[in-house]
Design goal:
The complex is a heterodimer.
Chain A (H helix, E strand, L loop, with lengths): L6 H17 L11 H16 L18 H13 L8 H14 L2 H12 L5 E4 L15 E5 L4 E8 L10 E7 L10 E7 L5 E6 L8 E12 L3 E2 L5 H13 L6 H18 L5 H29 L8 H23 L17 H11 L7 H12 L6
Parallel strand pairs in A: 1-4
Antiparallel strand pairs in A: 2-3, 3-7, 4-5, 5-8, 6-7
Helix pairs in contact in A: 1-3, 3-7, 4-5, 4-6, 6-9, 7-8, 7-9, 8-9, 9-10, 9-11
Chain B lengths: L6 H17 L2 H9 L6 H10 L17 H13 L6 H14 L3 H11 L5 E5 L4 E2 L6 E6 L2 E6 L4 E6 L6 E6 L5 E6 H40 L1 E2 L2 E2 L4 H29 L5 H27 L10 H13 L4 H12 L7
Parallel strand pairs in B: 1-3
Antiparallel strand pairs in B: 2-6, 3-4, 4-7, 5-6, 8-9
Classes of the chains: A alpha+beta, B alpha+beta.
């Protein structure tokens, strides 16, 4: 066991920190889940890309730095510590990209990865449908073979598509074989949202932002070079992505260690740091964030040594999503009657960020597979309990 | 950066696990409830023979010259079988302390303890003493003073624990019978380190206990049938056990990190030990609760073994500082001095 960083890793941390201190906007950007805010965030992404910070763990040829998983963790720690803007590109760079690296053809990688890294293409995820949420294999959106033009014709609907109203590409699962059993007969398609037949309708989210979208497909042509992996093998391809989503790439520990430090700061400002009840509750949250950081260090050690986390990534998702809710609930209690103030209210503390963060945290136990499903996965695949 | 144990550490753990599964089955723990003494000279000798008791003693004193990182996994194993022995007291606390003081008398007891020939009990500010009836010498941590008291000079009064395999005593002795090993600021510093090692060792035992409770419950819910199906196929049961696993899996890295901090004398040792003990206490209480609930009424009997592990959890969750006590220590590092002090 060695819990120290090497000199090279320390130097990498210093380089991240220095760049972030110089470049992170001093005035927070408007929410990236609003139309204006989104495009300001895209400008920030381009700044990150120009300095090779947008996809540090990717190979250099695609715009990354070939950073190790350890360096990626360091980058994330520094990113959140610096209070840098939310990553509106995350569905592409963290969820689709690992799948593209694993299943994409050489041409697909060349075509999609550099533009994703540069935030030239903006990707959203097309998983859920009106009647397929936790039961993802129940999706009904269909794709018919079009041999004449060499591709697929898609008809159906996706929903709860995060930032779907602002993105230009969608990756998702579509039913290509009606005869096959539920999990078979699905194909992973990359769909340009400017194609004829696509209609996107924004939906206001719980926090008021237009972050959600419904996406309708009416005989939309998707060429063969936009099929990821093999026809009818989409389920396996998609599972590789959901494992990244639940696991550390979507919500790295740096995010939570930074937010508990901000909670400590809030406690000092509100005087809660002198009250034994608050001290206990805040310390508990702080320890829980530290536990997540250490759990991740152990996970990354196994990954680096060639083991795969598999279903254990469901434990990871349960922990961070429920920790995030606890931290924000605590912050709202510290704020008391000020908690309800909206971001633009003159007396709002921290521009209403805690209530905003609370509402966002409440989505955590729902997206990326509800926590009820995750608990089933843990019980069945880690503990070995019978499915039926 | 590498947050994992070495192959050797894992192999040693496996060997100790194998020994304990054989030597300390539930019947042995049950016997410790009924017998006058919980201590078994045979098991102690076997552990000493493998080097477990004297693990942290220097080789010159007959030990293995290893540290907390090597010991922590072994203590998890002793927790897993609810071993009724004062191994945290003798092995994790007394032996390292005896190696840290200059007194000749300490060197004598260190060699005897490392060889498995002497049991050293511990007391902090007159706390109750585990297995004082079988100890050869008592290591007493008092205010600014650390002393050794020969067992012949100690008056004992049993204080029954709800865990019948934990034999606790109120111990009294005359000041003239105590040989002082350290005093003043040195004693304060050594006491703080010794206490941290005890809390860390106990946290490790709680992790082992929690894993045992979970494993037994996972087995039970696959056998027990109601409504024509194993109850482990019901979502309500699955969610109980997923929560139990979640609690243990996120307490464990805190315990392993604390072992690292103590082994390398890091400035954050006390904070890290407190995070570990707070998390291990909470996690094991959580697991015990889920284990009882998933078993139902059978676990509410003393005929079924589960109660022995639950009661050990309840005892150890409070021993060496309970979760709120340890969080108060962490809070001083995170939020600044406690205004109540």
């Amino acid at each position: 066991m060695d819990l120290t960083w090497s000199r090279a890793e320390q130097a990498f941390r210093d380089e991240c920190r220095t760049w972030l201190v110089e470049h992170v906007p001093t005035e927070p950007l408007p929410s990236g889940d609003t139309r204006d805010g989104f495009f300001q965030h895209v400008e920030w992404e381009k700044q990150l890309f120009d300095a090779r910070w947008s996809v540090v763990s990717w190979p250099r040829e695609y715009g990354g730095r070939d950073a190790s998983l350890w360096e990626w963790l360091i980058f994330e720690e520094e990113y959140y510590r610096a209070g840098a803007p939310q990553r509106v590109t995350q569905n592409g760079i963290f969820l689709l990209a690992p799948t593209l690296f694993e299943f994409g053809s050489h041409e697909q990688k060349e075509r999609f990865l550099p533009r994703m890294a540069a935030a030239d293409d903006l990707w959203c995820q097309g998983w859920s449908e009106p009647n397929a949420g936790s039961d993802l294999a129940g999706i009904k959106s269909r794709a018919w073979r079009d041999d004449e033009f060499g591709g697929w014709r898609v008809t159906g609907q996706k929903t709860w598509t995060t930032r779907g109203a602002f993105c230009n590409w969608l990756f998702g699962l579509f039913r290509t074989d009606l005869e096959a059993e539920r999990h078979r007969g699905l194909t992973y398609l990359l769909v340009p949202l400017d194609a004829p037949g696509v209609t996107v309708r924004g939906v206001g989210r719980l926090d008021g932002d237009e972050g959600f979208a419904e996406v309708f497909f009416e005989d939309v042509f998707v060429p063969d070079d936009c099929v990821l992996g093999d026809t009818n093998q989409g389920w396996g391809v998609a599972m590789a992505t959901t494992s990244s989503e639940r696991g550390l790439t979507l919500r790295s520990p740096g995010r939570f260690t930074a937010v508990v430090d901000r909670l400590v700061d809030l406690a000092r400002r509100t005087g809660a740091d002198r009250d034994p009840r608050w001290r206990d509750a805040i310390t508990k949250a702080w320890i829980d964030a530290e536990a997540y950081r250490l759990y991740t260090l152990a996970d990354v050690t196994s990954l680096v040594e060639g083991q795969s986390p598999g279903a254990r990534s469901s434990l990871n998702k349960l922990w961070w999503s429920e920790l995030d809710v606890r931290i924000h609930e605590l912050a709202l209690e510290l704020l008391g009657p000020m908690a309800e103030l909206a971001p633009h209210a003159g007396r709002a503390v921290d521009r209403g960020a805690w209530m905003k963060g609370f509402q966002f945290a409440l989505a955590g136990p729902i997206y990326a597979g509800t926590n009820e499903i995750q608990r089933n996965v843990v019980a069945e695949r880690v503990l070995g309990l019978p499915r039926k | 950066m590498r947050f994992a144990f070495t192959e050797d550490q894992l192999l040693f753990r496996d060997a100790v696990r194998e020994l304990l599964v054989k030597e300390c089955p539930p019947e042995h723990v049950r016997a410790a409830w009924d017998n006058d003494r919980s201590h078994s000279p045979e098991i102690w000798a076997a552990l000493a023979g493998m080097g477990v008791v004297g693990l942290t003693a220097p080789e010159s004193a007959g030990g293995m010259g290893l540290g907390e990182l090597d010991l922590v996994l072994l203590l998890e194993e002793t927790g897993r079988v609810a071993l009724p022995e004062p191994l945290v007291e003798t092995g994790a606390v007394a032996i390292p302390l005896l190696g840290e003081v200059e007194a000749d008398v300490a060197a004598v007891w260190l060699a005897r303890a490392a060889a498995g020939d002497a049991i050293v009990a511990t007391s902090f500010d007159n706390s109750l003493v585990l297995d004082a009836d079988v100890c050869d010498v008592l290591l007493a941590f008092e205010r600014n003073r650390i002393a050794l008291v020969d067992a012949r000079h100690i008056d004992l009064e049993r204080q029954a624990s709800i865990d019948g395999a934990r034999h606790l005593f109120e111990a009294r002795w005359a000041a003239k019978d105590a040989s002082v090993l350290a005093d003043g600021a040195t004693a304060g510093e050594l006491t703080s380190r010794a206490f941290d090692r005890g809390a860390l060792g106990t946290a490790a035992q709680l992790i082992g206990l929690a894993e045992r409770l979970l494993a037994v419950t996972v087995e039970y819910v696959q056998e027990r049938e109601q409504f024509g199906a194993p109850i482990g196929s019901f979502q309500a049961i699955k969610h109980h056990l997923a929560d139990a696993l979640l609690a243990v899996e996120f307490a464990k890295p805190l315990v392993h990190r604390a072992a690292y901090s103590v082994a390398f004398h890091l400035a954050t040792s006390s904070r890290d030990v407190s995070m570990a003990k707070a998390a291990a206490s909470d996690a094991s209480l959580t697991v015990a609760r889920h284990a009882l609930q998933c078993h139902g009424a059978i676990a509410y009997t003393v005929e079924y073994d589960l109660h022995m592990w639950m009661k050990r959890v309840w005892a150890l969750a409070g021993a060496w500082g309970d979760a709120p006590w340890h969080r108060r220590r962490v809070a001083e590092r995170v939020l600044g001095p406690d205004p109540a002090d």
